[in-house]
Amino acid sequence: MKYLADLRANIERIIKEHNAYFIGEDIQEPYGGAFKVTKGLSDKYPANIIGTPMCEQGFTGLGVGMALYGCYVSVEIMFGDFITLAADQMVNHAAKFSELYKQDIHFVLRCPSGAYRGYGATHSQSLEKMFMGIPGIQVVAPSIAYSPGEVLQTSIESGVPTLFVENKLDYPRELLMDRGSFWIKKVMTTLKGFPIIKIQPVDDAPELALITYGGLSEMALKAMEKLLYEDEINIEIIIPTLISDVESIVSAVDSGPVCILEEGVSSFGWGSEIGFAIQERYGNKVFRLGARDSFIPAAQSAELEILPGLEELVNTIKVGIGL
Amino acid sequence: MNYSRLYEKCMKIRLFEKRIEDEFSLGKMRGTTHGCIGQEIIPVFVMEQINRDTDYITGTHRCHGQVLAYTDDMYSLACEMMGKQDGFVNGLGGSQHIKIGNYITNGITGGMITVASGIAMGKKKNCDSGIVIAFAGDGGFNEGYVQESLNLASNYELPLLIICENNGYAMSTPTQEYSAGSFKARVEALNIRYIETTSTLPDVLEQDIIKGFSYVRNEEKPCFIDVHTARLCGHSKSDSMEYMSDEEKENNMKSDPILWLAKKIDSNEVEMINERIAKEVDDAFLNATNCREITLD
Fold first, then answer.
1. Which of A126, A236, B149, B202 could link B117 by a cystine bridge, Cβ 3.0 to 4.6 Å?
2. Which of B108, B121, B144 sits opposite A62 (nearest CB)?
3. Cross-chain Cβ contact A58/B145 below 8 Å
4. What is the pLDDT of residue A142?
5. Model ipTM?
6. Looking at domain A3-170, what is its CATH homologous superfamily?
7. pTM beyond cutoff 0.90
8. Would you identify the CATH topology of the domain A181-320?
9. Listing from the earlier edge strand, what are the strands of the sheet with B56-58?
10. What's the rounded mean pLDDT across residues A21-41?
């Protein structure tokens, strides 16, 4: 099954099981959402798919209020770049209701994010790090490694306001479980029920652990194959979904060098925090690869230059393990 | 209108707020506070109209009057403000972060209007009875998300009653001077029922509030009540009100709704009520002082 189809099927299941509401711009028929995630659903569930005018603060607050009242709610921010508009409702409202007032807030803010498509500076960013380290909310990123729809369901059922980061490049991709690959895949589950997926080509002790999430899981898999076929290097990939939970990610790591890969800007990034925590706990050698300190250019060559690339990742790993 | 009962309710808030001011000036309190001296009668009238089982109320940062009118519980509010475990949020919220029953507030000006629209949407979607009452201030009215939420409330026809406690100042900034057009024109442009009233005429205010409640309950559409009022104290503990002329302050004092109520009651009764409340405030603060602070795990 494709990532998009899996997501859509599970949205339908969440509506049936929880009478959940999905809110956002252009998500009704005939448009079905900018990335077609809710395509067809407003015809089947007209009361549950709520279209909005363009007002991210207003409709995110609307969703938070509905969740405070006890509804299961997911709001779509058309491009993840626009979450800055909704930040106050997440950070100063939803997070405080959850943490300070001890309310279950079944609220998920879905954010299609990510670059590599030439959309330029304000339609390509990975801004999720702005929402990490905020007590009372959590950040979740699905990927092709595990049913994104199931992760969405876990998120909305958790009762913790969630920023749910989908990667736009993932929508048309086939899920890993349906690819017939022979890689060894293990799924661990965090205390909160979010999967951490570990993938290895062969069942030997890996020479390095590559930690990543979301859209770059695909690049990580390619790097894993390349390293195995071209250099006989066996690495393990670790793909967490609850990416704001440092403890569960650190716990998934064994000894040996660790490379952290992220699409967002490296400095002050997710990799910095996870890398530091791993080093603090185990003293492993840690290195990272992320985007350079730059806006995201529209021109293809420039865009690829500032974002992490496959060759760069493979070389980073080789240098990291001393080759 | 039962004048003595109303006087007593307003006076409880007044003397509580005065005591908070004293406690701060004696250095006995930490943090900040936003007093509602002069505006007490608005939440008192509003809470008279609510259905405690089905209605929801969202508040503002200036919430002590709203909380006391909703709960009549000085002790828990004093505890909350002093960081004691018997506070509404175990003392962890403080002056402006309070949730009790169906009342919830927060410290972001105007932010709760967005949340109130969502609670109203939840009610509408679930076909539940009851309405949402959202307190707001004139300062917060210029926040973009307030305008966004009014648009949503009108479009989705939400059972939302907005009570704008319009004291004319956004902290020290005169709201009128910095607001283009009028609140009336803005609200009506969104096809929302607008009622303009004033706290200086309590009998008129009461009728207007009743009118707003019945409009939202019966029509199941939003309504905005713009209550002109006057804050007789600073915006917060550090405000000495230099932005207001002596003449304006004097006029505000003269049109204090509590004076209006006191004149309707026998002066002996006023004195009795005042003494009774003074003791109640003393007890609340004494007991709160003796309450423990919560320990986090």
1. B149
2. B121
3. yes
4. 98
5. 0.96
6. Thiamin diphosphate (ThDP)-binding fold, Pyr/PP domains (3.40.50.970)
7. yes
8. Rossmann fold (3.40.50)
9. B99-100, B103-104, B56-58, B132-137, B160-166, B223-228, B193-198
10. 97
